[in-house]
Design goal:
single chain; 14 helices
Length: about 290
């Protein structure tokens, strides 16, 4: 993915977006570099400028945990960004290859199928939809009915996404940050490389946002939808790791009690009742069409 130097690219992106005041550096209108200079990060981290430059350039791939922590502190990274930086450093040192499986456990599928009022999806770390209960598949029918199973590809390449997500820009930023957070150690993963390559080629907006290297996992957030059958609804989602498959996450959506969104979700449930139970094979293996 990217240019084969995710650790260096992340450091550079964060450095260029860090204010010089973060490290007490004097501001000058004559600065040619946005954010911090390499030597300023190096000084604040207690390493030589040459060593830091080699990290950004990918010529040094074995920073210690202590150095990584010092870099995170110098760049003002939050806990999630710091964890991502440590992950990138570990991956660079060990050349980890992880693709993850696509089989969703039968017990989890049965559990989801019992949730008649709660949309639920199982995602992998590339944000491919691996499975969904009836209501989850009905909620995302505009995407899934076209044979598309990747949330990020749908967001950036399918014109329907801008109508489906009223707050499209926020969803786009959140999706890319979640993809970054979940795929930090998927070094040399061919499916992720193909996804990033396709989106970089076809979407200027993707290229711009992807270059920021924002990192935010899918945890808890409110999201608005404009569903083609039941209209507008706002749902909150919570994301849970699947202990039996660490590369998978369960995402559960809920409407506020007594809200118009709850009524819309109940109406969607009548549509979902005619759908079959969750498939026992990955939805992401289905062919894509209409894109």
């Amino acid at each position: 993915m990217d240019s084969g130097n995710p650790l260096g690219e992340f450091l550079r992106a964060r450095r260029e977006m860090t204010s010089p005041s973060r490290t007490g550096q004097p501001w000058s209108g004559r600065r040619r570099t946005p954010g911090l200079r390499r030597e300023e990060v190096a000084q604040a981290s207690g390493v030589s400028t040459d060593y830091y430059a080699r990290l950004e350039q990918g010529r040094e791939k074995r920073p210690s945990a202590q150095v990584v922590h010092a870099l995170a502190r110098a760049l003002g990274l939050d806990p999630e960004e710091t964890a991502h930086l440590h992950q990138l450093a570990r991956t660079a040192r060990s050349s980890v290859r992880r693709g993850g499986g696509v089989t969703v456990g039968s017990r989890l599928l049965r559990l989801m199928d019992g949730w008649h009022h709660t949309p639920a999806l199982v995602l992998d770390r590339r944000l491919d939809v691996l499975a969904g209960n009836r209501l989850g598949r009905a909620l995302f029918a505009r995407m899934l009915d076209q044979g598309e199973t990747n949330l990020v590809r749908f967001t950036f390449l399918n014109p329907d996404a801008r109508d489906f997500y009223p707050d499209w820009e926020r969803v786009a930023r959140s999706g890319l940050a979640a993809l970054r957070a979940g795929s930090g150690d998927l070094t040399n993963d061919s499916r992720l490389t193909e996804l990033v390559g396709e989106l970089s080629l076809k979407s200027a907006e993707f290229r711009t946002l992807w270059a920021r290297h924002d990192v935010r996992g899918k945890a808890h957030e409110a999201k608005s939808f404009n569903h083609h059958q039941v209209g507008e609804l706002t749902l909150t989602y919570d994301s849970f790791t699947v202990d039996s498959a660490t590369d998978q996450q369960l995402v559960v959506y809920q409407a506020e009690l007594g809200s118009a969104s709850q009524q819309a979700l109940a109406l969607l449930g009548t549509v979902a009742a005619d759908l079959p139970a969750s498939p026992t094979v990955s939805l992401s293996d289905a062919p894509r069409s209409g894109l």
